[in-house]
Amino acid sequence: MIKYFFILINSLTLFIFGLFQTDNSVTIKNNIPSNFIVGQEVAVEFRISKGIQTGFAKFQLELPDGISIIKKDEMNSIYSIQNGVAQWIWSEVPEDEELLIKLTLVASEVGIGIKTFNSNYSFIEKNEKKVINMLPLEASIQNNIINNKVSVIKDTLTKAEPNTSIDVVRLISDGPNANEKTITIKIKKGDTKGFAKYSDEIDLNLNAKAIKTDGSSFSVSDGKIKFVWVDVPTKSELEVSYHIDLNNKNSNILKGEYSYLEKNQSKKYIVKPDSLVIGKLKDEINLHEVDELRKQLAWRRKLLVKMESDGSTEKEKLEKLRKEADSLDKRLTLSWPEYAQQKKNLSITWDQVQQNLENGEAAIEFVRFKNE
User: Fold this and answer.
1) What residues contact residue 149 under an 8 Å CB cut-off, 6+ apart?
2) Which residues contact 114 (CB under 8 A, 6 or more apart)?
């Protein structure tokens, strides 16, 4: 009887031990540095102590903006990366008690600041999915720091000047549907190598879909479409394209830039803004011209108000300013639909005021005459 009692105790002990010997034994360790310098390659390791776990497993690493993987060990897994999330998936995880995943990361200027890394390891145990999360890790992405002040100034000047061989052209054409546009980007990249990215700012409510990626990874986030190359192709010209659905909006302004590395320096080529417009306008919109017209009109109106309030007697100058302001106003109305609509919304006629009077109400018109 005592013998069976001890057998029962031993069985219960093993059972209870088995309950606690689960995912608590799985740990994730890494050597991600607390600081990244733009353009410098950093070797990183993830050590996953998995014990005797077998079968399906997945390791997932969420990369913050500005961090890219340029080399990695696939560890006999199915490796993929999309929208900054890298995954290593095993249908049958290696038998080793520890998985060692090595990869090389590089930071770009677009990610400067404090960024957060997240990762997790998931597996199947007793027909249940277990997930082990790594504690979020913060790292700082910085530009190259040079102690010599003269060197800092020279480096800043070099960085501000893009390679003259770089040229980016954005072409806009009608899409397959009435409210869609097709955007084609042609990038003459010269002899630049390594990391590169093209992005266009778009309205958060608009939908975009890649057509041609030319070896890049396409994503839409934070109000931007992005084409990212971890290692840009060696050919001299890149071409990417995407569809954008304007969702019945009349227009949307695209602001783009091409970021790249040159001699370990992060540089940027700014693409001139373009306007997406549904339908045909009387005059084609040129955003640079519109912005210049708007500034000139605002300046003349401000000067007119000041001269009139000061009681200026320069009649010829006042008349010239009025005519110039009227001319600029007309040009803006023709070339900028939003401005024309605003004017229409604000233009209230005397007849409209009279027609909207209710019983017992009266409208009074004040007229000011200048005593010449």
Assistant:
1) none
2) 138, 139, 140
Tens digit of pLDDT for each residue in 16-63? 333 333 444 788 889 999 888 888 889 999 999 988 888 889 999 999
**Res. 69: pLDDT tops 80:** yes
- Strands of 230-278, DSSP E: 237-245, 251-262, 265-277
In angstroms, what CA-CA distances link 173 with 214, 225, 268, 289?
19, 17, 26, 21
CA 57 vs CA 52, 95, 192: distances in Å: 12, 12, 39
Q: What amino acid occupies position 219?
A: S
Q: Count Cβ atoms below 10 Å from residue 46 Cβ, excluding itself.
A: 21
CA distance 343 to 228: 42
Burial of 258 (0-12, 13-18, 19+ CB in 10 A): buried
Q: Would the pLDDT of 15 be above 70?
A: no
Q: Are 184 and 173 in contact (CB under 8 A)?
A: yes
Report the C-alpha gap between 229 and 279 in whole angstroms. 34
Residue 371: is its pLDDT beyond 80?
no
Contact 286, 310 (CB under 8 A): no
User: How confident is the model at residue 61, as a pLDDT?
Assistant: 93
Query: Residues 232, 104, 46, 36: what is their CA dihedral angle, to the nearest 10 degrees?
Result: -100
Question: Encoding tokens for residue 219?
Answer: 């994503």
pLDDT at position 323, please? 86
Radius of gyration over every alpha carbon of the chain, rounded to an integer in angstroms: 32
* Strand partners for 41: 106
Distance, in Å, from the CA atom of 57 to the CA atom of 51, rounded to the nearest integer, reads 13
d(CA 203, CA 253): 8
- Tokens 């102590």 belong to which residue? 49
Q: What is the Cα–Cα distance from 141 to 196, expressed in whole angstroms? A: 17
Write the pLDDT tens digit of every residue in 134-154: 888 888 888 764 333 333 333
Share of the chain above pLDDT 90, in %: 15
Could you tell me the pLDDT band of residue 245, with boundaries at 50, 70 and 90? confident
Q: Helix or strand or coil: residue 297?
A: helix
The two most distant CA atoms of the chain are separated, in Å, by 126
Residue 340: left (phi > 0), alpha (psi -120 to 50), or beta? Answer: alpha
